[in-house]
Amino acid sequence: MIYLDNAATTKPVEQCVKNAERYLLREYYNPSALYAEGYNLNLELKEARRKILSFIADENNFSLNFTSSGTEADNQAVFCGGKRGNIVTTLGEHSAVYSAAEELKQRGTEVRFANLNSDGSVNTKHLLSLIDEKTSLVSVIHVNNETGAINDIFKIAEEVKIKNKYALFHSDGVQAFGKFSFKLTKNIDLYSVSAHKIGGVKGCGALIRRKNLVIKPFIFGGGQENGFRSGTENVFAIKCFEMAAEIAFEDINVSREKVKKLNVAMRSLLDNEVFRILSYDDASPYILAVSAAGLRGETVLHEADDNGLIIGTGSACSSNAKKRFSRVILACGADKQTADGVLRLSFSSENTIDEVKTAAEILNKIVKNRLNIMA
Predict the structure, then answer these.
(1) 179-238 tens-digit pLDDT
(2) Entry pTM
(3) For strand 190-194 and strand 205-210, is the pairing parallel, antiparallel, or unpaired?
(4) 3-state DSSP call for residue 106?
């Protein structure tokens, strides 16, 4: 089986799972407990928090709180950051931000959506025009999870603060963290990450926030995570996240270059008579959006699965919505026929060039056969 749906989830790093197994079977104590075993686990969490944060931020200026997922981190940023006036976000957001913003709208908050460029990045000029003195939160995804378009969130955040220095700036960094090197700047207030996108296990994410930023918790209870997120911490998943992040950042540039070669190869191997490449050349190499116009992407996905190839049709988190056309692809300006045939191929450094060659052969054959039948 060839797996090219890594943007949905990655295979957990086996060694990380094995090394963290002791937190499930032996050191299973509650890290909030007062006895020594619990306190020692609390110290382990502090170290994991410090280490994960250190990869992209200065711990003197930022803090990190663990959540159950990137979705929860996004929801906390939106619901707890957008408390007054209006919020501004984009039409290209992951559903964790987009749906949360829609819910805020239902509750009476004014929500303004910025348009996209044809590659899936935000139209910065339009975004900035939506910001005024009443804007409490601006949320812009770092890497678009459907097209791979990279938003320059550091420049955008700086321009946002010029327009309204009191507006909080949040970015969903789930598809960026562990994929390329960067450091958060002072203009970033909130940043969401997830473990299972980089070889960790599902059920663990984090919200990074600027120190001294006062926003209320999203989940109330026992006051864990320094009162910012209640609920007994998932020590096993958190330690897996820490170990997976260490591996990801140790070889981050090497992995990126390898994945870039896979992406370029796939672009050249797909038959350009039946496939249209939607992702631009400067997009994240980890994500390649294509369209088999005239066919339904879901149909191609299922037949590919029957032939030993696992791919996606867009955001896996949006598949439950049962909407035929991706709102993100349509917002890029694509017509419905193109949007209907969208496939998302997403890579990891574990994939090989031979897998890419075989995957391209499978996809070319499936699409050509189906188009011939329809002709």
Answers:
(1) 999 999 999 999 999 999 999 999 999 999 999 898 889 999 999 998 889 999 999 999
(2) 0.96
(3) antiparallel
(4) helix
H helix count then E strand count, the chain: 13, 12
Taking the C-alpha atoms of residue 189 and residue 62, their distance in angstroms, rounded to an integer, is: 9
Structure confidence by residue, pLDDT tens digits, 49-91: 999 999 999 999 999 999 999 999 999 999 999 888 999 999 9
Q: Return all residues near 83 (Cβ < 8 A) that are at least 6 apart.
A: 136, 215
HSE, CB side, 13 Å, CA atoms: give it for residue 361. 9
DSSP 60-105: TTEEEEEES-HHHHHHHHHHHH--SSEEEEETT--HHHHHHHHHHH
**Ranges of H-type helices in the chain:** 14-20, 22-25, 36-54, 70-81, 95-106, 124-129, 153-163, 235-250, 252-269, 297-306, 327-331, 336-340, 353-374
Alpha carbon 56 to its chain's center: 15
Distance between CA atoms of residues 246 and 140, nearest Å: 26
From the number of C-beta atoms within 10 Å of its C-beta (0-12, 13-18, 19+), residue 312 rates as: buried
- Joined tokens for residue 150: 């990279």
Q: Can 204 be counted among the known catalytic residues? A: no
| Residue type at 184 in one-letter notation | L
Residue 122 to residues 22, 60, 116, Cα–Cα distance (Å): 44, 30, 4
Q: Which residue has the tokens 């959506």?
A: 113
Please list, residue by residue across 349-361, b when 16 or more beta carbons sit within 10 angstroms of its beta carbon and e when fewer do: bebeeebbebbbe
DSSP 11: P
Contact 191/208 with Cβ under 8 angstroms?
Answer: yes
pLDDT at 31 over 70: yes
Q: Considering all CA atoms of the chain, what is the largest pairwise distance in Å, rounded to the nearest integer?
A: 72
Catalytic residue among 16, 80, 240, 317: 317
